[in-house]
Structures are given as C-alpha cells and as structure tokens.
Amino acid sequence: MTLLDRETADAWIARWDVQQEGYVPDREERFTALIDALEAAAGRPDPLVLDLGCGPGSLAARILDRLPAATVVAIDADPLLMALGRAAHADRDGLRFHTLDLREPGWAARLRLDRQADAAVSTTALHWISGADLRVTYRELATVLRPGGLFLNGDNLASEDVTPGLARLEAALCERERARRLSPEGAGAPEDWEQWWTAIAADPALAGLRAEIREEASGHHGSESGLLSTHAEALRDAGFGEVGTLWQRGDNRLLAALLTG
C-alpha cells in the first residue's frame, strides 16, 4: 500500500469531519456525551476500548485526547479510511488499527487482545450493517468485552416501528435544526458523502491507493438497520442485559448497553 504523508491525511480527515457534520449537526456534542459516559463507566484511567466502524479515527482520536492512558483498538473494513487514520495518527501509541469486517464470525478473536475490553464504541457506522449481520457483530463483541462492560453507539436510530407518531416528531426536530444550521443548497452547503468519495478518488496524491478503494466507495444505498429496536434486540440477544438511550436530539441518539456480568 502507498504510504500517505501526515499533511495529506490530516487534510482529508478534516474534510471528512465537515462532511459528516452536514448529516449530524450535533456530532461534536454527541462525541462529548459518549466520551463522558465512557470515562464515567471505565473504572480505570487506562481502559481498553474498541472503536467499531472507526473510519479514519475521528472518535478514537477524541477519546485519547480526553483519556491519554487509554488504548483504543480501531476496527473498520475500508482500506482507504484505515490508511488515512494510520497516517494521521501514527504518533499515538495508544491507537491501533485493524482492518476487519465486523459482519464476519471470528473478527473478535482476530484482534488477539491481551485482556478483555472495558468498553466498545461506535458512531454513525453500524446502521449500514443488515439486521442479521448485526447480530453477528454484537455476539462477537460480547466475547471480548468484560462482564459489565459498556457499549456506546451514537447514531440516528428511528423508532417508527414502535412509536410512529413520536418518530415523525423526532425526524421533524432533526430536519428543522439541520435547516437552521446549514446554508441553503447552492450557497455554501457542505460537501456530502458521495462528493467526498468522488473527490478523494480523484486526488493525485492518492493514486497508489485507488486499487484499494472499494468499488462502491460512495455507495451506501440506504440504512439497513436504522431502527432502534433492531439494535436493542440484537444487543439483548448477544447478552447485554441493560439497553437504553443516554442522550438524544430527535432521532440522533447515544444508545448504551451493559454486558451481563
């Protein structure tokens, strides 16, 4: 794989963060709530934390900014995003990247952890995994998380199958707040997901990585497990005894689960 320089990686990750904030205006606030919960639940200054669907390491870096003695094991299947993360965060001793598919049985054992993880986190990632595969993901997670360990998932998760009226209100709240924060289309609207992938694929500095970019680089085609109930049921099936929402803005939630001891 072509080695990236730090400056190039930093620039693309900064652009990634802006693109993500276009979809999740409360992204930084959700990051803060997630890390607050992680710090409160860890029970030690040097927790071992798994970051599921880590992308280029935006959340992992923020965790280490707050908890510098932590070890964060960042996991994703996308080779380009992982290359950006490795290049940008090469100087962080507490951050390790693993290229693994969370849908495949056995991914947890391939981490070869030297102790059970204290917590696992994820943001805006796991809703792309189908309901059936999500059960695999959470069952695997339960094998490497300590009893009483915490899982935190920040994502837009709808409740329309259980409370359709409230779900409509949640969506309306999110849309109105997003409209207040974003410029009108064509007058400074932020780059979207497809535009980011198109742009990075055309960057001459990344020519050596193009073969690594997945064919559907810009092609997530709809949320496959975007329901809150899908995640809650899969977590309980995996052995998480308590599942609930710690923080919420409309359907933008911080879902939390404790593994049964």
TrEMBL record:
Methyltransferase domain segment(s): 49-149
UniProtKB keywords: Methyltransferase, Transferase
Domain of life from the UniProt record: Bacteria
SUPFAM superfamilies: S-adenosyl-L-methionine-dependent methyltransferases
Transmembrane regions: none
InterPro entries linked to this entry: Methyltransf_25, SAM-dependent_MTases_sf
GO terms for MF: methyltransferase activity
GO BP terms, alphabetized: methylation
Name of this protein: Class I SAM-dependent methyltransferase
Organism in which the protein naturally occurs: Actinomadura sediminis
